[in-house]
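Recall the central idea of this unit: under ordinary conditions, the amino acid sequence of a chain determines the structure it adopts. In this exercise we apply that idea directly, starting from the sequence alone.
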Amino acid sequence: MKRKFIHIIPILILLISCNQKQQQIDTWNNRIAEYQAKMEKIESDLILDTLVFNENMNGKQLTEKYDFGQTELDFYKQFISEKHISEKQLLTDEYTKTEVTYLGKLKDLDNQKFYHVLTNFKIIGIGEMESPRGISNIAFLNENMEKAIIYRMGMPDELPTRIENEILYFNHESEKIGISILGGLPPMLCVPKIGCN
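Accordingly, the structure predicted from this sequence is:
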C-alpha cells in the first residue's frame, strides 16, 4: 500500500506543475488578445507587435547586454526626470554631440514591472571629419534604476519617439510602428519593418 502511495505523489506534483504552467500561458495569451483588441480601436494604420520574453532567451547574449548596460547605467540615470519627458537634452564637447531623450515609463504587460526608456543619438567627429559617424541607442532601465539593457539601432530615424498606452512608438519611413513588452526584455529588440538589433 505504501509503495502505491509513494508513486502517486510524484505524479500529483507533476500534474499540478503542468497545470500552473498552462494557466500562466493562458493568462498571457488572454492579456495579449485583450491588449491587441484595445489597440485596434486606437489606430488602424498602426503596425503593432508584442515582444514576448520566455525562459529560452536567457543566455550569454542577454547576460552580455546587461553587463554592458551596467557600464552605462550612471550615464542614463542622470536624464530620467518626469519634468523632461520627450525633451531632447544636449551634451556637446569638442568632437561629439549627444542628444538624449527620456520617453517615460513603459509598463510590461505582465502588470508587474515597468522600464524607464531613453533614446540616445551621438554624433562623433564633428568639426574634424568630413563625414561624422552617428550611434543610435535605446536604453531600458528597470524601475529601481539598478539594471539597464541597451540596444544599438542602425539610424536615428529607427529610434522610438514616444510612449502611450503601454506602447513604444516608432515613426519609420512614414510608417507608424508600436511595440509592447511582455514578461521581460529579450536579448534582441525586434521591431517590425526596422529589424532586430
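Residues 63 and 182 are 19 Å apart (CA to CA).
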